[in-house]
Design brief:
By secondary structure, the protein is an alpha/beta fold. The chain folds into three domains: 186 residues, Rossmann fold; 75 residues, Luciferase, Domain 3 (Luciferase, domain 3, Roll); 97 residues, ANL, C-terminal domain (GMP Synthetase, Chain A, domain 3, 2-Layer Sandwich), CATH 3.30.300. The protein has a nine-stranded mixed sheet with strand order 2-1-10-9-11-12-13-14-15. α2 crosses α3 and α10 crosses α11. The chain starts with 6 loop residues before the first helix and ends in a 7-residue tail after the last helix. Bound molecules: malonyl-coenzyme A (MLC) and adenosine monophosphate. The site of malonyl-coenzyme A has 22 residues, from α8 and β13.
Length: 510
């Protein structure tokens, strides 16, 4: 008999025998058992089935983090549809684009946003709009409550789509990275093995569940190991440190580590039961890596990945395989091929810096409805061009030293300068603009906007930022804006962003 490659089937098979054991404990004192996950995901899956959606239908979800939101994800997998998570910070123009582009059959939003989300969804032809709030209410749960709690997992192949994750484009609009059941499951299995997931592990889940790190790396890790999660609806350093003694595994972006280090209660006793701290999504500063080791006795394991590929590399878990080296993202994961090439497509040797290209069962199926873009990002022999610039040393440790894509990573969220500049340039009175990244003690890096005005225009920096705030997700708003007489240009007439980056590099450090 052909085995079902549906990711949910594999996650379900890993649930512990005792379905009444606690699967998730929330920060407001609720306990969910494995049976709760199984039953609630069945009910929501039955609701989706009752809507008679087309095969491959997208379920777009912009809701606050909650265990019910996780159940909706599991239900979407289980019913065989395609999950499309959206950052809760996105505002109407952003949501309008995603819904227009993805044409989801179902949209789930918070009741607070329903009036405007419903309008956008209906205009895009979405037939079903439900609400889901973070207090276990909303029309989705009301409708699911009328459905059976038994559901046969839909049969899916490894190449069938499981999720679409939008990742902003360096030019033009966001692209939807299409991830298959096979991409997600193969990567989750490799990480389970590499990071030594074992019986008795407890994960502190403190990341949002609309990006790769929280939705896949952390959540699949715990589920595929049948491990309990201590669930924070939002990250709070004090509360997280207070729960460390009850946990064994923690995953975070570097900002989470920086904020926990500011907590006096973070000490060796607090981490006495921990076995693994993982960092990723943005570069971990060596200072943070060292300070963490001094304070806790634990060496953070840094890994590297992206929406299009899930995880690609990891520092070793087992000391027998090597030390965890700060400033590197470790070794390529089993099953993944990684090479460094120069602009002419020549393979580079140990220590030489070039573009990172990857291939493997984890690499996505392409960008949603963008075959040309997809083609551009793959080499003729099927390697995906990550847009990250790095090197591999003689022992196989990989370091990311830069990016060929113009991208700012702020607190683990990606901000694409081209998008923000587009919005600034549309403002009346603006001649042109440049957004550059500046080092920041909390977010790692933040955007600084440099703007020039048309002759006679009377616009100041505060007005520009206020305009942006009304249109864009809050994390994309530049932390500072300066109106300049002109932007520096090279002989080709191109704005010299490197010069601007250098000029503003100490803005937040002193
Ligand atoms: C919040 N703010 C940010 C920000 N987050 N500014 C810049 N960058 C960020 N990341 C700003 C808000 O705009 C707001 O400003 C103020 O901070 C308070 O907002 P908040 O929502 O209360 O912030 P907080 O809860 O403190 O959030 C900070 C954070 C969050 C670090 C906890 O950003 C976060 O959860 N980051 C993790 C992102 C993540 O999961 N990335 C994984 C991507 S997957 P104002 O002015 O409006 O008050 C990926 C692949 C891989 O990259 O390899 O994993
Ligand atoms: P996203 O598109 O949100 O998935 O972001 C992926 C990008 O995050 C990668 O292409 C890298 O540029 C960056 N990234 C992820 N992990 C790391 C890391 N450990 N160190 C440096 N950059 C990272």
């Amino acid at each position: 008999m052909k085995t079902n490659a549906n990711l949910y089937a594999a996650l379900r098979a890993a649930f512990p025998a005792d379905l009444d054991a606690v699967a998730v404990e929330t920060d407001n004192g609720l306990h969910y058992s494995w049976r709760d996950l199984e039953r609630a995901s069945a009910m929501i899956a039955n609701l989706l089935d009752s809507l008679k959606l087309e095969p491959g239908a997208r379920v777009a979800v912009q809701v606050e983090k909650s265990v019910e939101a996780m159940m909706l994800y599991l239900a979407t997998l289980r019913a065989g549809y395609v999950f499309l998570p959206l950052n809760t910070a996105y505002q109407s123009a952003e949501i309008d684009y995603f819904i227009g582009n993805a044409e989801p059959a179902v949209v789930v939003c918070s009741s607070h946003n329903e009036p405007w989300v419903r309008k956008i969804a209906q205009a895009a032809g979405t037939r079903h709009v439900f609400t889901l709030d973070d207090n276990r209410s909303g029309s989705l749960l009301e409708a699911a409550a009328r459905c059976s709690d038994r559901h046969a997992v839909a049969s899916r192949g490894a190449d069938d789509l499981a999720a679409i994750l939008y990742t902003s484009g360096t030019t033009g609009r966001s692209k939807g990275a299409m991830l298959t059941h096979g991409n997600l499951l193969s990567n989750a299995r490799v990480l389970k093995d590499c990071w030594g997931w074992r019986k008795g592990d407890v994960l502190i889940h403190a990341l949002p569940i609309f990006h790769v790190h929280g939705l896949f790396v952390a959540m699949h890790g715990a589920l595929l190991n049948g491990s309990k999660m201590i669930w924070f609806s939002r990250f709070d350093p004090k509360k997280t440190v207070a729960r460390l003694p009850d946990a064994t595994v923690f995953m975070g972006v570097p900002t989470l580590y920086v904020r926990m280090l500011a907590e006096p209660a973070l000490n060796k006793s607090a981490v006495r039961n921990m076995r693994l701290f993982v960092s990723g999504s943005a570069p971990l500063l060596i200072e943070t890596f060292n300070e963490w080791r001094e304070r806790t006795g634990h060496t953070i394991l840094e890994r590297y990945g992206m929406s299009e590929t899930v995880m690609l590399t990891s520092n070793p878990y087992d000391p027998a395989q090597g030390e965890r080296r700060g400033g590197t993202v470790g070794f390529v994961l089993p099953g993944v091929q990684l090479r460094v090439r120069d602009d002419e497509g020549r393979d580079l040797g140990a220590g030489e810096i070039g573009g990172i290209q990857v291939k493997g069962p984890n690499v996505f199926a392409g960008y949603w409805r963008m075959p040309e873009k997809t083609n551009e990002e793959f080499t003729a022999d099927g390697f995906f061009k990550t847009g990250d610039v790095g090197k591999v040393d003689a022992r196989g440790y990989i370091s990311i030293v830069g990016r060929s894509k113009d991208l700012i990573i702020s607190g683990g969220y990606n901000v694409y300068p081209a998008e923000i500049e587009g919005y600034i340039n549309e403002l009346p009175g603006v001649a042109e603009s440049a957004l550059v990244g500046a080092p920041h003690p909390d977010f790692g890096e933040v955007g600084v906007a440099l703007v020039t005005l048309k002759a006679g225009a009377r616009l100041d920096a505060d007005a520009i930022l206020a305009e942006l705030k009304s249109k864009l997700a809050n994390f994309k708003i530049p932390k500072r804006c300066f109106v300049l007489e002109e932007l520096p240009r090279n002989t080709m007439g191109k704005v010299q962003k490197a010069l601007l980056r250098d000029q503003y590099k100490n803005l937040f450090l002193n």
